[in-house]
Amino acid sequence: MKITDVRTVCTAPEGIRLVIVRVDTSEPGLYGLGCATFTQRPLAVVTAVEEYLKPFVTGRDPDNIEDIWQAAQLSSYWRNGPVLNNALSGVDMALWDLEAKRAGMPLYQLFGGKCRRAADVYVHAHGSDAKEVAARAQSFIEQGFRHIRCQVGVPGRSTYGTGAALGPRLDGLETPGEWWDPRQYCRIVPRLFEELRSALGEEVELLHDVHERVPPTMALQLAKDLEPYRLFFLEDIVAPEDNPYLRLIREQTRVPIAMGELYTNSAEFLPVVQGRLVDFIRVHISDIGGLTPARKLAALCEFFGVRTAWHGPGDASPVAHAANLALDLSCPNFGIQELALWSDRSREVFPGCPEVRDGALWANGLPGLGIDLDENAAARFPFPEHDFNGAWPEVRLRDGTVTRP
Ligand code: GCO
Ligand code: MG
Question: 175 is in which domain, residue-wise?
């Protein structure tokens, strides 16, 4: 058997740019799907797949997943960046999908079988003030969810995770941006969780994402201020570039730390796992090159007592979620799975989306990733034309300094 074709399919059923890779084989009707979504630079990934990976892997035996991964990664000499890793992930996930389809079993079975019946998920309750967040969280609790990420708008500021009203745009700059104030945010977040605990009680698990938006020592203070509210985890408290601060934070606070959606290579995640500096690893699987490296990372984490919490936002496609789920079900050190709920549009484009029930994600038991791609439906949701092909808007401090988004 040989790989006969590799191509990308671009679609945006939720308005978020997704890139899917389909790998065809010489066996009629046998193909695999993978996720190659880097939503801020999707067209660069498409070029990497179509112009470089397609000619590189066409004609190879799709059974040789590890060899193809290693050879493709080294073929660019310079490696480990998000564009090439996402492209590689598209092919890699598709090869695992193919392998499990040929074996006639779900991918989690090929990975060693289920350690649990389903994967607990967390969902997003975001709002412009604490009352709105509490109301959304309450409605999720009523729908059976037990883990909820809560984000609140900082009045008049461009806050991650909320579409809260923005203040006046900064003027006097060549490119006016939205304005952000880390101190104001650090004062508001503990008050949010105080209100949430009194509105929702102790039973529900609450999570929060700092999104690397505050300087390290301010983040440490925030973690200490949040201790009384017993979070399930506090995410991306620092940027990957500030990894060494994690030791300091670790020594001074008992808040569980989740890190890693921005990591793209082992030089970033290895010291953090080895030093037991985090409780949860939150790598975005396609950003490190797909399932082949993610399986190794999961196993590494197991020996260091670090649990998995694979990144699962709206810009991880349902194909990526199916890949996450294959690991969630088969890895003993699973912690939690992030989930962005799918509308009927996504379910139409991706038949076989995992089922969401009782606060968890359930696999459908079909061979491979268990998910398909309806290309006609996908074509009805082309990429949006605004936003510089996906690039994120600038966020700036009050004096105009550009800051992390
Ligand atoms: C999360 C994330 C995302 C990212 C997004 C970037 O869900 O934890 O921080 O929302 O911001 O995936 O494209
Ligand atoms: Mg995050």
Answer: 110-365
Looking at ligand 1, which atom is closest to the CA of residue 284? 12
Residue nearest to atom 10 of ligand 1 (CA): 313
Per-residue model confidence (pLDDT) at position 155: 86
Q: Kindly report the protein residue whose alpha carbon is nearest to atom 3 of ligand 1.
A: 313
Q: Is residue 56 part of a domain?
A: no
Residue 118 CA, ligand 2 centroid: distance in Å? 22
Q: Which residues pair with 121 in a beta bridge?
A: 337
Residues paired with 199 in a beta bridge? none
CA of 161 to the centre of ligand 1 (A): 8
pLDDT score of 181 more than 70: yes
pLDDT in tens, 224-250: 999 999 999 999 999 999 999 999 999
The residues that bridge with 34 in the sheet, in sequence order, are: 21
The enclosing domain of 116 has a CATH number of 3.20.20.120
- How confident is the model over 70-89, as a mean pLDDT? 98
What lies within 8 Å, CB to CB, of 269 at 6+ separation is 260, 263, 281, 283, 288, 297
Nearest ligand to the C-alpha atom of residue 315: 1
pLDDT tens sequence across 51-75? 999 999 999 999 999 999 999 999 9
Question: For atom 1 of ligand 1, which residue has the closest CA?
Answer: 313
- Which tokens belong to 293? 């490296």
Q: How many domains does the chain have?
A: 1
In a domain, 124, yes or no: yes
By the CB criterion, residues less than 5 angstroms from ion ligand 2 are: 209, 261
Indicate whether 249 belongs to any domain: yes
Kindly tell me the burial class for residue 30, based on how many C-beta atoms sit within 10 Å of its own C-beta (0-12, 13-18, 19 or more). Answer: middle
List, chain by chain if needed, residues with CB within 6 Å of any ligand 1 atom. 39, 209, 211, 261, 313, 315, 338
| d(CA 381, ligand 2 centre) in Å | 26
